[in-house]
Structures are given as structure tokens and as C-alpha cells.
């Protein structure tokens, strides 16, 4: 056998009975890859003395799990190169180490779980940051809303406190105008309220240097031509909208806005009027009693707009008030501001720590994905050369860690949110970006807590839930596609027929919300009780429509939906009892025991691509997916994936 082992050719066949993965073994391929050189996987022994010495000194260890330190002479048959067997076991150990969890990696190689520690630290810091920002945002939104209510009482004629509470169903009708005189009276009321701003309890002032009344602006949006002759059903109409704005000085309060517009030759034609707006500004300072002794006051400028909406031309002009808050730089007590800087510094330090931790998490996860990609390239080429087959799609997909992809996404969101939060708190932004910042931080924090499921999945009890969702996801998606088609039919039908007569079906969005609430058994009686009785056929249709939808979705669709999830749960329980289905990659990797983890067989440096240069990394990334064969069967020169193999074999 020793003589034959010295003379085997480069294209000899490997005996299927010499290793534990015999059903995977095929012919050694003569083809090469641009990712790995041919001599890495299947090359003859260069020298006879080296081969003889290697086989004489090889005291390999083999067990039922297929772990072999070095193939012993007794395990080799004619045509079986020891170097090829060693490479196979090396690749197997590398893959086994790759698929270990952080605890197993620590036991096998004393590799500190940096990513796990970073994620724990990130959860703590991000949650602290979110709590502080949520408290500040709530106070800010509550402050602007309270000011909007105060402005409504000061500048809106006929405003009532019952409109300040959002109730369902609404207890009052729409806030609207129905007479032409009321339109001008409402504008005069707002102008008078602005002129007597000092009567307000709030610390409101004019946005002028001498605190004198600022000029207000009235804008009219009209159709270019819009004349209606209702008595003979005729009209003159040009749909192009023109905007006309007039400045209202302080003396308007004495003559009235209607007379002032007449003097300016401005005629208000309600038949062509689309909308009108009255715009003015107010400055104020917020002492923030809720912020504590270290919170500095904030200065704001409220841009107030009173909108008259007449676009429907249905005899009802809707009236509303909007107040847009813009933060200003305050010039207050210098001593207090210096004390308040301590609070700002602490918040800035927290923001900086979150930024640094998220950047570190992003770098670690990106590096892990990149290394997984390199190992995937090596494994694909290994299967081509050793087993003369392509790695299956399921096997390739196992190298893609979607948890890391989710962590990368939430890191980006948290970095953007933290940067925006720092600018808000340092008052570098004058526009209101609280909602945008809360969106970034909120979704990022949500995904951070979702990421904890990855580490709970290392325990069987928690992993059952994750595996059940993963197993049921494709079936749930297909089921929802069919269920949504039926749901869409009911939604469009209800919107079209019941929309004019039922408040819950006024729009497609409210119709969908109503149907979803009915599926969950919410507000059923109110939906039935508000049915229209305008016509008998309409009442009968409403009854048939609601009963059929509720019965179909509650008793049939939801039951089937639950059964899909339960079927996946039963399948996972069977997998735990009888074994999980394995791909060709997992079949090659095999199993490992606790003794293997502590035996030291994983202590050798198997991550050769960690020592590759940047140019080697770029070369592998560019060539792994696109270059499957070499021209004319010649392998390129250069380092292989196992740079230390020759020295070991020698």
C-alpha cells in the first residue's frame, strides 16, 4: 500500500469506504477555481520521503462522529491521498466551528463572544436613550398640543371645549361655517384676538423687535373662473387655481376685514373660493417645570395658520387651526445656562456611547457576514473538487445569517436616530424633527429587542417558538394571500355600497379598519346599530354582508390560520423527537459531542482567510460567484485557502 500511495495519479478515485462521508464522495475534479488553487484540495505528494515519513508518524484519532486529527496509515487504501483526507477533516472542523453558538465556541476554542457582549451593552444603552427621549418627546408634543388648544380658544370664534376630547363616535359635528358673514366675522375675531394678545394667560409675544403687533397675512385660493348660474343650470369654470395674499395691518381691527378688502379691490367669490388661510406668528418661552432643576428653558416660535376649507363647495366651510412649533436659541440667565450644560453633557455622552456601540456592532456583524461569505466560497469549491457536485441551495443559504442582517439594519437606524437626537438636544435644528427621530429610534429599538431571540434560540424551550414561526412562515404567507383576496373583496364592496350611509365605511381605509376590528370581535354591536334604514334592501344587505363576513373569518379563516401554525408546531416537535432533516452540508459536517468541544481539536487556527490581505479578499469576493472554471485546466499561482498545510504535512 505504501508503494501505491507513492505513485497515485492526480486524477485517482477516492475509495468511498475510507471516510465517514462516503455517500458524498465522488471523483476528484481536475477543474480549478479562481477562489482556491487546485493543489489545496487534491494534489499528489511531491516527494516520496515526505509521504513515507508522514504516514509513519501519523497517529490520527478517529471516532464515530468522524473527527480525525490526521489519517493513520491503516485508514488509507490504494489511491487515497492522506493530504486530501486531512483537508477534508480540516474543512469539516472549520464548518463545525462556524455553526457553533457563542457558548460552544468558548468551550471549544476559548473565543470570547464579542458580538454577544456588544449586543447586551447596546440593548442597555439604547433602552436608556429611548426612555429619556420618549420622556422629552412626550413633554414636547404635550406642550405644543396644549398651546394649540390655547390658540383655538384665543383665535377661533365659537370654539368649544368639547372639541378638545377625541371621542368615538364623535360627540359633536364638524367645526364649520355656513354663512358669508360668519366668514368675515371669524377673521375679525382672530385679528382682534391677535391685537389683544396680552390678555392671554400664556407668555405670548409678537415676533417683532419692539414687541409691536406683527402684520398678518390673508391668502385666498380661487379658481381662475368660477361663476354658477343655478337658475338655468349653467356655469363658467376654469379649474386653474390662483393664489392671492393680502397683508393685514393693525388698523384692520377698526374697519373690519371685509371693508379693508373692498378698499383693496379684492372681492371674495365663494362660488370660486377653494380655501382661505390666515397666517401669523407668536413667540413664547417654556420654563419646563417637568424637566427638573437641570433642564434649561426652551424658546419657541409658533407659526399659526387658520384654514377655511371650501373645496367641496357643499355649503359647509370647514374651519381648523394649526400651530407649527419652531425652536429658537434662547438668551437667558447665563449662570443657569452654565448649570444646565451638565444635563446636556450627560445626554451627549450617552448619545456618543450609543453611536460608538452601534458602529462597533455594525463592524462586527459585517465582518461576520463577510467571513461567512468567504467560507461559503471555500465550501462550494470544496464540494466541487472532492465530491464532484454543487452545494445545494439549502446548504448555501445556511451561510447567510439573517439575524446579522437585521442587526445591521437596526444599527443604521440607531446611528441616524442618535445623530438626529443629538442635533435636537443641542438645538442645532430649528425645524421640528421629533417625529423623524422617534421613528428611527423606535424601530431600531424594536429590532434590537427582536435580536435577543437569536440568543434565546440556543435553548431548546425558546427555540421551539422560533423554529415554529420559521417553519410556518411560508405556509402562513400562502394562506394570507388567499385570505387577503377575500378580504379585499369584502372591503371594496362595503366601501362602495355602505360608504355613504355608514360612518365606519366612509373611506377604504376606515372600511378595512372596521372589518379587521370585526374579525377580532371588537365593536360589533355599534357596527350593527349604526346601520342605515333609508331603504329596506339596504338594511337587508347590511345584515347579510356583516353576518357573512363575521362568520366566514371568525369561524373558518381564523381557525384555519391557527391550524397552520399548530401543524408547524407539531412538525417541530416531531423533529425534536425523530431528528431534523439535514442538507448535504449538514450531512458532511456531521455531529459533535461535549468531549469534542473540550478535547482541543478546534484550538488550531482554521480561519486562514482571516490572515488574507485586502487584495486577496477583493479577489475572492469578485471571483467566487462568477469564475467556476479555469481556462485550459491550468490553475493559477498564489496562496491557497490552507497556507499552513504544507508545513504541517512536512
Structural overview:
Helices cover 52% and strands 11% of the residues. The protein is of the alpha+beta class. The protein has a 6-stranded antiparallel sheet. Strand 5 and strand 6 (317-328) form a beta hairpin. Helix 3 packs antiparallel against helix 9 (334-386) and helix 13 packs antiparallel against helix 16 (536-578).
Notable traits:
650 residues; alpha+beta; 6-stranded antiparallel sheet; 20 helices; extended
Structural class: alpha+beta
Radius of gyration: 37 Å
How many strands in all? Answer: 6
Separate helix tally: 20
Strand residue content: 5-15%
Q: What assembly state would you assign to the polypeptide chains in this entry? A: single chain
End-to-end CA span:
20 Å
Can you give the helix content as a percent range? 40-55%
List unreliable stretches of 5+ residues. 1-78, 607-615, 625-650
How is the main sheet built? 6 strands, antiparallel
The main sheet orders its strands as 1-6-5-4-2-3
Give me the strand/helix succession: HHHHHEHEEHHEEEHHHHHHHHHHHH
Shape: extended
Average pLDDT number: 77
Amino acid at each position: 500500500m505504501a508503494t501505491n500511495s507513492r505513485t497515485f495519479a492526480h486524477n485517482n478515485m477516492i475509495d468511498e469506504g475510507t471516510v465517514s462521508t462516503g455517500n458524498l464522495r465522488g471523483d476528484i475534479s481536475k477543474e480549478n477555481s479562481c477562489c482556491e488553487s487546485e493543489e489545496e484540495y487534491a494534489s499528489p505528494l511531491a516527494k516520496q520521503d515526505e509521504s513515507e515519513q508522514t504516514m509513519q508518524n501519523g497517529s490520527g484519532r478517529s471516532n464515530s462522529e468522524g473527527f480525525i486529527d490526521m489519517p493513520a496509515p491503516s485508514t488509507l487504501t490504494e489511491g487515497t491521498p492522506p493530504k486530501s483526507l486531512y483537508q477534508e477533516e480540516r474543512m469539516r472542523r472549520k464548518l463545525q466551528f462556524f455553526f457553533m453558538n457563542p457558548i460552544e465556541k468558548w468551550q471549544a476554542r476559548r473565543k470570547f463572544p464579542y458580538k454577544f457582549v456588544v449586543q447586551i451593552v447596546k440593548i442597555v444603552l439604547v433602552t436608556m436613550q429611548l426612555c429619556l427621549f420618549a420622556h422629552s418627546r412626550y413633554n414636547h408634543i404635550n406642550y405644543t398640543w396644549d398651546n394649540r388648544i390655547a390658540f383655538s380658544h384665543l383665535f377661533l370664534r365659537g370654539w368649544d371645549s368639547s372639541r378638545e376630547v377625541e371621542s368615538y363616535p364623535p360627540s359633536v359635528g364638524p367645526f364649520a361655517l355656513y354663512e358669508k358673514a360668519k366668514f368675515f366675522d371669524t377673521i375679525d375675531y382672530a385679528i382682534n384676538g391677535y391685537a389683544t394678545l396680552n390678555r392671554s394667560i400664556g407668555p405670548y409675544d409678537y415676533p417683532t423687535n419692539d414687541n409691536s403687533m406683527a402684520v398678518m397675512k390673508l391668502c385666498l385660493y380661487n379658481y381662475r373662473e368660477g361663476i354658477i348660474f343655478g337658475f338655468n343650470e349653467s356655469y363658467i369654470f376654469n379649474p386653474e387655481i390662483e393664489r392671492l395674499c393680502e397683508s393685514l395691518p393693525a388698523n384692520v381691527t377698526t374697519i373690519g376685514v371685509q371693508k379693508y378688502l373692498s378698499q383693496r379691490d379684492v372681492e371674495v367669490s365663494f362660488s370660486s373660493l377653494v380655501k382661505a388661510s390666515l397666517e401669523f406668528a407668536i413667540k413664547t418661552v417654556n420654563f419646563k417645570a417637568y424637566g427638573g432643576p437641570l433642564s434649561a428653558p426652551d424658546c419657541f416660535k409658533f407659526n399659526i395658520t387658520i384654514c377655511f376649507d371650501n373645496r367641496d363647495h357643499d355649503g359647509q366651510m370647514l374651519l381648523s387651526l394649526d400651530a407649527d412649533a419652531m425652536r429658537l436659541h434662547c438668551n437667558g440667565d447665563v449662570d443657569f445656562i452654565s448649570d444646565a450644560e451638565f444635563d446636556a453633557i450627560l445626554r451627549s455622552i450617552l448619545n456618543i456611547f450609543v453611536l460608538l456601540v452601534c458602529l462597533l456592532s455594525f463592524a462586527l456583524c459585517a465582518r461576520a457576514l463577510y467571513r461567512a461569505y468567504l467560507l461559503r466560497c471555500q465550501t462550494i469549491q470544496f464540494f466541487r473538487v472532492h465530491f464532484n457536485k454543487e452545494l445545494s441551495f439549502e446548504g448555501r443559504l445556511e451561510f447567510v445569517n439573517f439575524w446579522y442582517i437585521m442587526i445591521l439594519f437596526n444599527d443604521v437606524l440607531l446611528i441616524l436616530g442618535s445623530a438626529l437626537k443629538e442635533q435636537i438636544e443641542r438645538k442645532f435644528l430649528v425645524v421640528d424633527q421629533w417625529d423623524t427621530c422617534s421613528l428611527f429610534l423606535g424601530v431600531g429599538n424594536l429590532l434590537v429587542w427582536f435580536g435577543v431571540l437569536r440568543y434565546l434560540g440556543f435553548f431548546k424551550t425558546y427555540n421551539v417558538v422560533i423554529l415554529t414561526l420559521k417553519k410556518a412562515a411560508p405556509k402562513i404567507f400562502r394562506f394570507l394571500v388567499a385570505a387577503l383576496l377575500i378580504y379585499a373583496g369584502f372591503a371594496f364592496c362595503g366601501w362602495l355600497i355602505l360608504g355613504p350611509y355608514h360612518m365606519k365605511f366612509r373611506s377604504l381605509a376606515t372600511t378595512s379598519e372596521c372589518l379587521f376590528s370585526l374579525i377580532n370581535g371588537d365593536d360589533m354591536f355599534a357596527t350593527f346599530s349604526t346601520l342605515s334604514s333609508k331603504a329596506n334592501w339596504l338594511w337587508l344587505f347590511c345584515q347579510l354582508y356583516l353576518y357573512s363576513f363575521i362568520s366566514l373569518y371568525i369561524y373558518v379563516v381564523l381557525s384555519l390560520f391557527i391550524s397552520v401554525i399548530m401543524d408547524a408546531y407539531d412538525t417541530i416537535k416531531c423533529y425534536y423527537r425523530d431528528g431534523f432533516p439535514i442538507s448535504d452540508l449538514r450531512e458532511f459536517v456531521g455531529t459533535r459531542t461535549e468531549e469534542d468541544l473540550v478535547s482541543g481539536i478546534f484550538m488550531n487556527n482554521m480561519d486562514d482567510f482571516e490572515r488574507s490581505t485586502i487584495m486577496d479578499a477583493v479577489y475572492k469576493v469578485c471571483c467566487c460567484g462568477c469564475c467556476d472554471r479555469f481556462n485550459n485546466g491550468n490553475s493559477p499561482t498564489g496562496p491557497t485557502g490552507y497556507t499552513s498545510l504544507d508545513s504541517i504535512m512536512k
